[in-house]
Amino acid sequence: MELRRSVGRVAVRHPYSETTAEEIDPATGCTVCREDQKQVSVPPLAPFFLCHTIAPMVQRTLETLVRRGEPLITVQGYRVVRSRGPIDGQGNRTVFSNHSFGTALDINRDLNGLYDRCVQFGPECRLLLGGHWRPGVPGTLEEGGAMVRALTALGLRWGGAMQGRQKDFMHFSYTGY
Fold it and tell me: What does the alpha-carbon distance between residue 39 and residue 48 come to, in Å, rounded to a whole number?
């Protein structure tokens, strides 16, 4: 089976006033433009960017988790990439991801991989990206765990609870997968 490729690090270069409908997230109003992103700084994590409408609440939640000693190692938010939607003639995805609008974040990627062939997690699941998911290891995100509870309480959806053939254990998104 050939993998469908995402097209990463897309540069959108035109005046903000010429932003197209596909470049605007209808749920938050954030665009793929850097101007709509706010830096989130939660030491000891490296700073990252999120949509300005969700950045403050995510920052407060992550600060609380760090103070409580939760094993937050890495967080990645805004990055412009086409990783959803139909496949074009070259095998590339054609629709901007939620990360492109700053409405998604990936936590502890090296411990919480993205899998396909994974209706229910087990040996048949195929790791596509990130590290192997091993429940019980500190930093691994799990249903009912403190980090998953705190972020889903904000209205974010956790990729580890996705229905269907993919599980994205690192992923949280405000607007859904």
Answer: 6
